């Protein structure tokens, strides 16, 4: 049975998922920490978007509280080595927006915080998905139109500013966010100005 959505009541909550009672039938649904935290209490009604993986030994249901998480699950599982459970592990560490930022900024170290993601898989993730992450608004210099796929433009000063902040000891993901914010606020196009403005963004 290839389901797209389940609506029922929360019958049980486990470490890796929930049991959803749908008209007397119990559906075990694997969920991320984010989705689990957003679900109502036991016995309360809940609706989950669902991705179904069908194998010879049965079906596995993965549940999501919203479309953004479901869409990222679908995207993550297009990468070789990322099965459903690893994708959920990633989504347990990153909400959709921070995940897009981590991929677009090529924060491989951050991605390895997810269980099942080693250095090689993290590299594969950022290599294959960084441009797709830009389509979520996380990239720099995004060019997009009604019929043109989003893409990341080559931006030397921005990359130079990010690299400078990383060399100062900041994490790449944090540096990426700071330089992005600085560029948006100042409109600066040179690395020196972006570095100074980025440091202000990073100041406590």
Your description of this structure?
The protein is α+β, with helices and mostly antiparallel strands and 204 residues long. The protein contains nine helices and seven strands; from the N terminus they run βββαββαααααββααα. Strands 1-2-3-5-4 form a five-stranded mixed barrel. The protein has a two-stranded antiparallel sheet with strand order 6-7. Strand 2 and strand 3 form a beta hairpin. Helix 2 crosses helix 3 and helix 4 packs across helix 6. The longest helix has 20 residues. The N and C termini lie far apart (51 Å).
How is the secondary structure organized here?
Elements: E1 5-13, E2 17-22, E3 25-30, H1 33-38, E4 45-55, E5 58-64, H2 67-76, H3 84-93, H4 96-104, H5 108-111, H6 119-138, E6 142-145, E7 148-152, H7 156-167, H8 172-186, H9 191-202
């Amino acid at each position: 049975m290839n389901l797209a959505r389940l609506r029922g009541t929360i019958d049980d909550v486990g470490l890796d998922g929930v049991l959803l009672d749908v008209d007397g039938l119990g559906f075990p649904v694997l969920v991320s920490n984010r989705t689990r935290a957003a679900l109502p209490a036991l016995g309360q009604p809940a609706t989950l978007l669902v991705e179904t993986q069908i194998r010879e030994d049965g079906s596995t249901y993965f549940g999501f509280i919203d479309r953004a998480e479901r869409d990222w699950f679908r995207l993550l599982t297009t990468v070789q080595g990322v099965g459903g459970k690893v994708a959920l592990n990633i989504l347990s560490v990153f909400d959709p927006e921070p995940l897009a930022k981590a991929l677009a900024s090529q924060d491989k170290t951050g991605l390895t915080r997810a269980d099942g993601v080693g250095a090689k898989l993290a590299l594969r993730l950022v290599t294959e998905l960084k441009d797709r992450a830009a389509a979520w608004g996380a990239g720099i210099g995004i060019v997009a139109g009604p019929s043109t796929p989003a893409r990341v433009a080559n931006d030397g000063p921005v990359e130079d500013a990010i690299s400078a902040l990383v060399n100062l000891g900041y994490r790449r993901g944090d540096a990426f966010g700071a330089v992005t914010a600085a560029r948006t606020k100042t409109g600066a196009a040179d690395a020196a100005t972006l570095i100074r403005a980025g440091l202000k963004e990073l100041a406590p």
